[in-house]
Known about the structure:
Layout: H1 3-125, H2 129-149, E1 152-154, E2 168-173, E3 184-189, E4 192-194, E5 197-200, E6 203-207
Parallel strand pairs: 2-6
Antiparallel strand pairs: 1-4, 3-6, 4-5
Helix pairs in contact: 1-2
Amino acid sequence: MSMIEKEDLMVQPENVEQEEEITNNQYSEEKEQTQDPLSEEKSTETAEETVECEESAPVDNLTKVENELKALNDKHLRLIAEYDNYRKRTLKEKLDMSKTAGEKIFTDILPLIDDFERALQHIEKSIDLKAVKDGIELIYNKFINFLLQHGVKEVETTTKEFDAEIYEAVAKVPAPSAEMKNKIMDCVEKGYMLDDKVIRYPKVVVGE
Length: 208
Protein backbone atom coordinates (compact mmCIF):
# COMPACT_ATOMS: atom_id res chain seq x y z
CA MET A 1 0.00 0.00 0.00
CA SER A 2 1.32 3.38 -0.91
CA MET A 3 1.84 6.26 1.45
CA ILE A 4 -0.95 8.34 -0.15
CA GLU A 5 -3.55 5.71 0.48
CA LYS A 6 -2.49 5.44 4.11
CA GLU A 7 -2.88 9.16 4.58
CA ASP A 8 -6.39 9.01 3.08
CA LEU A 9 -7.38 6.30 5.49
CA MET A 10 -6.11 8.30 8.45
CA VAL A 11 -8.02 11.43 7.45
CA GLN A 12 -11.31 9.62 6.88
CA PRO A 13 -12.38 9.23 10.57
CA GLU A 14 -12.17 12.98 11.19
CA ASN A 15 -14.43 13.61 8.21
CA VAL A 16 -16.94 11.12 9.55
CA GLU A 17 -17.03 12.83 12.94
CA GLN A 18 -17.55 16.22 11.32
CA GLU A 19 -20.41 14.89 9.22
CA GLU A 20 -22.07 13.39 12.30
CA GLU A 21 -21.74 16.69 14.20
CA ILE A 22 -23.31 18.61 11.29
CA THR A 23 -26.16 16.10 11.13
CA ASN A 24 -26.81 16.41 14.86
CA ASN A 25 -26.85 20.20 14.65
CA GLN A 26 -29.32 20.13 11.78
CA TYR A 27 -31.57 17.74 13.72
CA SER A 28 -31.52 20.02 16.78
CA GLU A 29 -32.41 23.04 14.65
CA GLU A 30 -35.26 21.16 12.97
CA LYS A 31 -36.50 19.99 16.38
CA GLU A 32 -36.42 23.52 17.76
CA GLN A 33 -38.25 24.80 14.68
CA THR A 34 -40.85 22.07 15.11
CA GLN A 35 -41.35 22.83 18.84
CA ASP A 36 -41.43 26.63 18.60
CA PRO A 37 -44.99 27.00 17.21
CA LEU A 38 -46.41 24.86 20.03
CA SER A 39 -44.53 26.75 22.70
CA GLU A 40 -45.64 30.06 21.17
CA GLU A 41 -49.25 28.91 21.19
CA LYS A 42 -48.96 27.87 24.84
CA SER A 43 -47.41 31.21 25.72
CA THR A 44 -50.19 33.03 23.89
CA GLU A 45 -52.87 31.02 25.71
CA THR A 46 -51.24 31.69 29.08
CA ALA A 47 -51.05 35.41 28.33
CA GLU A 48 -54.71 35.47 27.28
CA GLU A 49 -55.74 33.66 30.48
CA THR A 50 -53.76 36.18 32.54
CA VAL A 51 -55.47 39.09 30.77
CA GLU A 52 -58.88 37.48 31.30
CA CYS A 53 -58.16 37.05 35.02
CA GLU A 54 -57.00 40.65 35.27
CA GLU A 55 -60.15 41.83 33.48
CA SER A 56 -62.51 39.67 35.57
CA ALA A 57 -60.96 40.78 38.89
CA PRO A 58 -62.14 44.43 38.62
CA VAL A 59 -65.60 43.26 37.56
CA ASP A 60 -65.87 41.01 40.63
CA ASN A 61 -64.69 43.83 42.92
CA LEU A 62 -67.20 46.25 41.39
CA THR A 63 -70.05 43.78 41.94
CA LYS A 64 -68.97 43.28 45.55
CA VAL A 65 -68.87 47.04 46.17
CA GLU A 66 -72.30 47.51 44.59
CA ASN A 67 -73.78 44.78 46.82
CA GLU A 68 -72.24 46.33 49.92
CA LEU A 69 -73.55 49.77 48.94
CA LYS A 70 -77.03 48.36 48.39
CA ALA A 71 -76.96 46.65 51.81
CA LEU A 72 -75.85 49.87 53.52
CA ASN A 73 -78.55 51.84 51.74
CA ASP A 74 -81.24 49.38 52.85
CA LYS A 75 -79.96 49.56 56.43
CA HIS A 76 -80.00 53.36 56.31
CA LEU A 77 -83.59 53.42 55.06
CA ARG A 78 -84.68 51.00 57.80
CA LEU A 79 -83.05 53.18 60.47
CA ILE A 80 -84.83 56.27 59.14
CA ALA A 81 -88.17 54.47 59.20
CA GLU A 82 -87.58 53.17 62.74
CA TYR A 83 -86.60 56.64 63.99
CA ASP A 84 -89.68 58.20 62.39
CA ASN A 85 -91.92 55.60 64.04
CA TYR A 86 -90.18 56.16 67.39
CA ARG A 87 -90.61 59.95 67.09
CA LYS A 88 -94.32 59.63 66.30
CA ARG A 89 -94.86 57.12 69.12
CA THR A 90 -93.03 59.34 71.65
CA LEU A 91 -95.01 62.40 70.59
CA LYS A 92 -98.28 60.50 70.98
CA GLU A 93 -97.24 59.26 74.43
CA LYS A 94 -96.43 62.82 75.52
CA LEU A 95 -99.79 64.09 74.31
CA ASP A 96 -101.61 61.26 76.06
CA MET A 97 -99.63 61.89 79.26
CA SER A 98 -100.45 65.61 79.25
CA LYS A 99 -104.14 64.83 78.69
CA THR A 100 -104.13 62.26 81.48
CA ALA A 101 -102.35 64.65 83.87
CA GLY A 102 -104.88 67.40 83.15
CA GLU A 103 -107.73 64.95 83.62
CA LYS A 104 -106.42 63.90 87.04
CA ILE A 105 -106.12 67.50 88.23
CA PHE A 106 -109.70 68.32 87.24
CA THR A 107 -110.96 65.07 88.73
CA ASP A 108 -109.28 65.86 92.07
CA ILE A 109 -110.61 69.43 92.14
CA LEU A 110 -114.26 68.45 91.63
CA PRO A 111 -114.82 67.54 95.33
CA LEU A 112 -113.61 71.01 96.30
CA ILE A 113 -116.20 72.55 93.99
CA ASP A 114 -118.86 70.39 95.68
CA ASP A 115 -117.71 71.70 99.10
CA PHE A 116 -117.93 75.31 97.91
CA GLU A 117 -121.44 74.77 96.59
CA ARG A 118 -122.61 73.23 99.87
CA ALA A 119 -121.00 76.07 101.83
CA LEU A 120 -122.82 78.66 99.72
CA GLN A 121 -126.14 76.92 100.36
CA HIS A 122 -125.55 76.87 104.15
CA ILE A 123 -124.44 80.51 104.26
CA GLU A 124 -127.83 81.60 102.96
CA LYS A 125 -129.69 79.58 105.63
CA SER A 126 -127.25 79.57 108.58
CA ILE A 127 -127.28 82.14 111.33
CA ASP A 128 -124.22 80.67 113.07
CA LEU A 129 -121.23 82.63 111.77
CA LYS A 130 -118.73 80.41 113.60
CA ALA A 131 -120.02 77.32 111.77
CA VAL A 132 -119.75 79.18 108.46
CA LYS A 133 -116.17 80.23 109.29
CA ASP A 134 -115.19 76.68 110.28
CA GLY A 135 -116.65 75.35 107.04
CA ILE A 136 -114.71 77.86 104.93
CA GLU A 137 -111.46 77.05 106.76
CA LEU A 138 -112.09 73.35 106.17
CA ILE A 139 -112.51 73.91 102.44
CA TYR A 140 -109.39 76.13 102.38
CA ASN A 141 -107.25 73.47 104.08
CA LYS A 142 -108.53 70.83 101.66
CA PHE A 143 -107.60 73.07 98.77
CA ILE A 144 -104.06 73.61 100.14
CA ASN A 145 -103.66 69.85 100.51
CA PHE A 146 -104.86 69.44 96.94
CA LEU A 147 -102.13 71.82 95.76
CA LEU A 148 -99.47 70.00 97.79
CA GLN A 149 -100.50 66.67 96.31
CA HIS A 150 -99.87 68.10 92.84
CA GLY A 151 -96.46 69.62 93.71
CA VAL A 152 -97.62 73.20 94.30
CA LYS A 153 -96.40 74.86 97.49
CA GLU A 154 -96.19 78.36 98.90
CA VAL A 155 -92.90 80.27 98.72
CA GLU A 156 -91.70 81.12 102.22
CA THR A 157 -91.10 84.82 102.80
CA THR A 158 -90.96 85.46 106.54
CA THR A 159 -87.56 86.98 107.50
CA LYS A 160 -85.96 85.45 104.39
CA GLU A 161 -82.97 87.01 102.66
CA PHE A 162 -84.13 88.86 99.56
CA ASP A 163 -83.30 87.00 96.34
CA ALA A 164 -84.27 88.67 93.05
CA GLU A 165 -84.54 85.25 91.37
CA ILE A 166 -87.31 84.17 93.76
CA TYR A 167 -88.95 87.34 95.08
CA GLU A 168 -90.32 90.50 93.52
CA ALA A 169 -89.67 93.65 95.58
CA VAL A 170 -92.57 96.11 95.42
CA ALA A 171 -91.30 98.47 98.15
CA LYS A 172 -88.39 99.20 100.45
CA VAL A 173 -88.66 100.40 104.05
CA PRO A 174 -86.09 101.30 106.71
CA ALA A 175 -84.98 98.16 108.54
CA PRO A 176 -85.68 98.20 112.30
CA SER A 177 -82.22 96.66 112.93
CA ALA A 178 -79.00 95.92 111.09
CA GLU A 179 -79.92 92.24 110.97
CA MET A 180 -83.10 92.97 108.96
CA LYS A 181 -81.31 94.84 106.18
CA ASN A 182 -81.94 93.26 102.75
CA LYS A 183 -84.47 90.92 104.36
CA ILE A 184 -88.18 90.57 103.68
CA MET A 185 -90.28 92.70 106.04
CA ASP A 186 -93.72 91.90 104.67
CA CYS A 187 -95.47 89.88 101.92
CA VAL A 188 -98.05 91.74 99.83
CA GLU A 189 -98.96 88.79 97.61
CA LYS A 190 -98.07 85.15 98.13
CA GLY A 191 -96.00 83.26 95.59
CA TYR A 192 -96.07 79.59 94.64
CA MET A 193 -93.70 76.98 93.24
CA LEU A 194 -94.43 73.92 91.15
CA ASP A 195 -91.82 71.44 92.33
CA ASP A 196 -88.61 73.54 92.02
CA LYS A 197 -89.95 76.16 89.59
CA VAL A 198 -91.50 79.45 90.63
CA ILE A 199 -94.87 79.76 88.90
CA ARG A 200 -95.79 83.02 90.67
CA TYR A 201 -93.26 85.35 92.30
CA PRO A 202 -94.22 86.61 95.75
CA LYS A 203 -94.48 90.40 96.04
CA VAL A 204 -92.60 91.53 99.11
CA VAL A 205 -91.42 94.55 101.06
CA VAL A 206 -87.65 94.64 101.68
CA GLY A 207 -85.78 96.33 104.55
CA GLU A 208 -82.87 98.67 103.81
